[in-house]
Amino acid sequence: MNSYDVTVIGSGPGGYVAAIRCAQLGMKTALIEKYNILGGTCLNVGCIPSKALLDSSHHYEDALKHFEEHGIEISGEVKISLEKMIARKDKVVEQTTAGIDFLMKKNKIDVLTGLGSFKDATHIIISKEEGSSEEIETKNVIIATGSKPSSLPFISIDKERVITSTEALKLKEIPKHLVVIGGGVIGLELGQVYRRLGAEVSVIEYLDRIIPTMDKAQSRELTKAMKKQGVKFYLSHKVSGITNNGNEVTVTATDKKDREVSFTGDYCLVSVGRRPFTDGLNADNAGIKLSERGQIEVNENLQTNIPNIYAIGDVIKGAMLAHKAEEEGVFVAETLAGQKPHINYNLIPGVVYTWPEVASVGKTEQQLIEDGVKYKSGQFPMRALGRARASGDTDGFVKILSDEATDEVLGVHMVGARVADLIAEAVVAMEFRASAEDIARMSHAHPTYAEAVKEAALAATGDRALHI
User: Fold this and answer.
1) pLDDT exceeds cutoff 90 at 283
2) In the Cβ-directed half-sphere of 138, how many Cα atoms lie within 13 Å?
3) pTM of the shown model
4) Which sequence positions are flagged as catalytic?
């Protein structure tokens, strides 16, 4: 029987990063993955493939609608090949997962393919697809089994007309009318992909705004921008049923006035969130406690009630984000090595990769009001930037919230071009507990989108923005 210092179950961003860091710190490490391809949801059917399709569809939309204003003339019809677009996405995924294979070999990590399940707290059985199995012994375990798409009790996902994000990434045709249930990140990103390709897109959201966990100003701005792009929104609508009629899907719902309404499309994307995935783990055999929501319960060290077993990523509480899982993977590895790592959960940024992009870190204005925190707010519109006008990306803003007494930055919320990258400036500033004045005093290159951060900081320190 092979024996390891650490065994990681699950090879998504949290799992493979945890394995690498454990190996770097001198631990004999095994990584168990039930599929033949490493990378988990993020690399295979999540973050990476969705961004590949977003980028491809963005190029198509630019060629169709925006090239002419830049003086680029295309003779003949601009055509789209969904088949080639999907093939490119698959190639990007293949290259990325191959990179994980390389990293496992480089760090001398044993990759064990099969379903990992607990025999007890120190023994794991790996069940192979062909029916055989092997058992390993391990001192410590890191559970990184991730999450799966959620549904609603009355919805039957047939994976043909009623689909999840997984199927939406490999459709054989562009929908005529895509009905999206859920106005969160996944639904909006994939909805925008197919809207750009010519589909009619209707987003049905139970709450009164999209991206409800982010700042309300961001919800308003993204709604406005996507409406201009032709996406239709039906907010405060409660879905009550979905019927597959063969080549059509009918979605029934009640609106905020309690009237029944229906939507008919050829595809329905169900994107109502994700659930922790512990199926087949046999956590009971190790004595691991799960919460009512199916999450694995952990303490401040990400340790379960069984001292040698840890859990990270989507399978525990908190935002279901790949970069959160990565930070937690490194945290556990360094904890096992006797180090004193830290994670500031308030400073894990959230991003929506639509166009315009949306990015946030820290407290929203609504949270500060709810907590009774006195704050200052400074906001700067992207349309006032020379760089934004030059590129034609004038939607959006940067908003900085700072403490009324100390001026410490408490939250930064952005909508606009490249804010997914720009938010890192805010994370760094807040990690060092910068004030809005600190940011306002720093030189930002001209012309850049980042100048909006400086201008918002100037606005937050007393209406000092220079370009509005």
Assistant:
1) yes
2) 32
3) 0.96
4) 446
